[in-house]
Amino acid sequence: MAAAAARGLKRPIALGLSMLVLGAIAAAAFAALIRHAAPPNVSSAFPAGEIVVGVDGSFPPFALDDGATLQGLDIDLAKSIARDIGLPIRFRNIGFYALHDALISGQVDVLISALRVDPARMDDLRYTASYFDNGLLLVTDADDMAAQPDALDKARIAYEYASSAESHIRAWEEDGRNLSRRPYELPQYALDALRLGQAEAAIVDATTFRLYQSARNGWSAKSEFITHDPYAIALRIDRVDAWKLVDSALAALKESGELGRIVDGRL
Amino acid sequence: MSFPNLHRKRLPIYIALLTLAIALAVPRPAPDHVPLGAQQRVETTVPLLCLHTLLENEVQEAKIKRSLILARELGATTIVQFFPWAYHEPSKGRFNWERADRILAHANRQGLQVIARLGLVPAWARPSSAETTSTLNYLPADSFEHFARYAAAFAQRYAGAVKALIIWNEPNLSFEWGYRQVDPAAYARLLRASYAQIKAANPDMLVLAGALAPTLEKEGSAAGLNELDYLDAMYRHGAGDVFDALAIHTYGFRDPPAAEPDRERLNFRRAELLREIMIAHDDGDKPAFITEFGWNDHPRWTGAVRPSQRSAYTIQAYDYAQSNWDWLESLCLWALRYPADLLSYPDNFTLVSADFRKKPIYFALQDFSRQRAKSEALWLPPPQEA
User: Fold this and answer.
1) Are residues A168 and A91 in the same domain?
2) How many distinct structural domains can be found in chain B?
3) Is the omega angle on the peptide bond into residue B84 within 30 degrees of 0, that is, cis?
4) What CATH number has the domain bearing residue A248?
5) Domain around B215
6) Tens of pLDDT, residue by residue, chain A (267 residues)
7) Chain A residues with beta carbon closer than 8 angstroms to that of B54
8) A30 lies in a domain?
9) Is residue A17 in a domain?
10) Is A31 within the bounds of a domain?
11) Closest to B380 (Cβ–Cβ): which among A58, A171, A184?
12) Number of domains in chain A
């Protein structure tokens, strides 16, 4: 009789325990959700009261240490982001090989250094949205040439010898395309060839194209990305509030047109 | 659902049997075993030609073999390869040679000589993180003998398969010395400990010292010390007696290979300044191995040249070394290939991309090693305005 009573009690106890466990899990999940969605607090995101930015100052026009100052697109962008967040900024010029270690070990808060998004680092890092795409461009006088195999096959394609553009063209050829290749010693010469009618297309990266256009006011051509190399800002994965603030600031700069002005100012 | 009492008692047995059956039935990946293939021989006209490989973190054996085939087909006689101590002695006195065995079996089968670089401290030989800020390159003085034992075990096991050992990498950089102040006297002690044990284990194994980073850092810098002052200090602390040849790192940066050496400039012929220090310490009879050199052709990095220059400079460097440096045993280019792209300018030091795409410089070096002259120009003349 007592055993039967005990068996009768077991079921409600088990049910109660299950409810408790489920409730705890739901509460934890809800708390995490709230924490994630909560507006970030500047002082907890950057407790030192400043934003320390790691940058490789050997990478113009994104960052260049001229011996006295750091200058470049990444520097301008970092200053605008800090202004938007409302904190002072300090730069640390670090070589590429030590950049990620500096972030992970907490020597810097954020990396703004022409970094391509690297999926292999995503266990440690959290990237913002991209602020610049330095992929390869097919530059032509015609629309949508990359999407028209016939047009591309008939075109003379200019590029820099031994560059990533050549690797891309070789990959096209391995896919069966029979292209008319025109290698030049410098990427500017490839664009010269297009401008002077000695080629129907040129392949260069986006930075090269923009710098070439800036140097030749008035010359324009159509361009379309054939590869993408998005540059983004990196933060440590556990610094969610800091990431939210930086990502929001970047979004605001895009929205206001400030990011475009920063890019135009350097490229 | 209810079970009779008899079956209920046997339920754990049934579950265990079912689990076993599922475990046996689930298909498992075939063991990653790649045949070594027939013994190969390197065909080259450039005996100095050597490549730095990075196979220690390559997971797939097929990629190790493919990388080494590419090295042989390019015409390299020798490779430099890192063998991390932490991988091969994960706990004190217990060696696991599986990775090294695999790399060396394939390298030897391709007919390549191997220079082994040793470093990277296992956790058991480092101070605990509670004691001090430690990195994987932090080798405390009381672990020098442990490292020496590892080097000796390596030398003994790979007698005949490995030609030389490099003791540590770039100890003149704080980063490579566990983020401590660099210390040539301590490095000389490490060399002394290692040399004695290596020679006892395998008298034929060459011991290479230095592998110093080319840098302009002055005495007292937190980042390190320039390799010229560091080598001089090594000799003053008695290192001259405990190595067989100097390992040199000498990158070209923006200069062509023939550019004059200068204490205040980093370029290819800076190696000659190290050589002068050897001679000044009556050590000129010893040879040297350049175990890292090269140019980078990233379009943005300030230390880079154009891709066309990179190809030309690299070949000119081999020509220069063959004609002028009779003290040089090997000229090893950094680097054949990375196991994964780093997605920035260091990728532009390689000859082959992570996905095995050969870059034009690979073909240029292959032509050079086979003495195949190009009949046509590699690029067109600059377009001219009408």
Assistant:
1) no
2) 1
3) no
4) 3.40.190.10
5) 47-369
6) 445 555 566 676 777 777 777 777 777 666 666 555 667 899 999 999 999 999 999 999 999 999 889 999 999 999 999 999 999 999 999 989 889 988 998 999 999 999 999 999 999 999 999 999 999 999 998 766 766 767 788 889 999 999 999 989 988 888 888 889 999 999 999 999 999 999 999 999 999 999 999 999 878 899 999 999 999 999 999 999 999 999 999 999 999 999 999 999 999
7) none
8) no
9) no
10) no
11) A184
12) 2
Query: What are the pLDDT digits (tens) for B52-102?
Result: 999 999 999 999 999 999 999 999 999 999 999 999 999 999 999 999 999
Binning chain A into helix, strand and coil, the percentages to the nearest 5 are 50, 25, 25
Distance in Å from the first CA to the final CA of chain B: 92
Query: Is residue B107, in this structure, part of any structural domain at all?
Result: yes
State the DSSP code for B277: H
Q: How far apart are CA B251 and CA B346, in angstroms?
A: 13
Q: How far is CA B303 from CA A156, A245, B62, B151, in A?
A: 32, 34, 34, 35
Indicate if A174 and A239 belong to the same structural domain: no
Range of the domain at A51: 43-133+230-266
Q: Do the domain assignments include residue B287?
A: yes
Q: What predicted TM-score, i.e. pTM, was given to this entire model?
A: 0.86
The beta-strand segments (E) located in chain B are 49-52, 78-84, 113-119, 164-167, 206-212, 245-251, 288-294, 328-334
Minimal CA–CA distance to B250: which of B227, B278, B229, B277? B227
B31 inside domain: no
> Is residue A100 one of the residues assigned to a domain?
yes
CB contact under 8 A, B346 and A207: no
* B6 has a chain A CB within 8 A of its CB: no
Residue B326: which residues within 8 A CB-CB, separation 6 or more? none
State the nearest Cα–Cα gap between A63 and chain B, in angstroms. 10
Residue of A nearest to B347 (CA): A164
**CB distance from A80 to chain B under 8 Å?**
no
Provide the ipTM: 0.82
